[in-house]
Amino acid sequence: MNKPTSHIRITKGQKRLYISALAVLGCILCIIIISSIYAVSSRIVTTTLYTVFPRNPPPTDEELIRLLSENQTIFDEIIITTQENYTLQQARIRNTWTDPKAILTKEQWDYYKEHFAQLNIDAGIDIYRRADQISIYFNIFTSGLSVSGSSRGIVYLTSPPSDTDLVSSIDMSKLPFSYRHVEGNWYLFESSD
């Protein structure tokens, strides 16, 4: 007894379409694999760095508020100096380097480095200016790499942040960028990605 056979006929156009579809799926699969390897490898590097070079945990809200309160005069002095010396839209001043746009004299950089050491500022300050508004971020704690990291500290804002970014505690915040009001123009901040 003969078994019935079925043959599916594929035209040349259908064949080309299938090959194109397989090529696209192959490209998508390659992108997914490469992205996964990149994400895993950056996490491995970060984890390895923190295993080899352990860091203290980030300061709590209360520790940051105490730092600001106990050193209010120094913070205020830095704000006044920075407002007087910088008209740039953006500048970064670090413990070990400075943004070339900042154009600091050796004496000015020494001034900032001395105050950073007094205040235990981990990664310097970021200055942002728009019209008559200025924001000066004191990066007390930083961790991670450029692809994945976080920063926590104290910020002086001449214009308050959006209500959606305000939280009652940055310790408990799940937002990628959050602020906690301390008093006047002073806030705590946390940024993470």
Structural notes for this entry:
The chain is α+β, with helices and mostly antiparallel strands and 193 residues long. The protein folds into two domains: 11-54; 61-192, no CATH class. The protein has helices spanning 12-52, 61-70, 72-85, 106-119; strands spanning 90-93, 125-130, 133-145, 148-157, 177-183, 186-192. The protein has a six-stranded antiparallel β-sheet. Strand 5 and strand 6 form a beta hairpin. The longest helix is centred in the first third of the chain and has 41 residues, at 12-52. The chain is elongated and about 100 Å long. The N and C termini lie far apart (69 Å). Mean pLDDT is 78; it is low at 39-53.
Q: Give me the number of helical elements.
A: 4
**Radius of gyration, Cα only, in angstroms?**
26 Å
Helix/strand/pairing category: alpha+beta
**Helicity, as a percent range:** 40-55%
Order of helices and strands: HHHEHEEEEE
Residue-averaged pLDDT = 78
Number of strands: 6
Q: What is the 3D shape?
A: elongated
- Spatial order of the strands in the main sheet? 1-2-3-4-6-5
Percentage of β-strand residues: 15-25%
Separation, N- and C-terminal Cα atoms: 69 Å
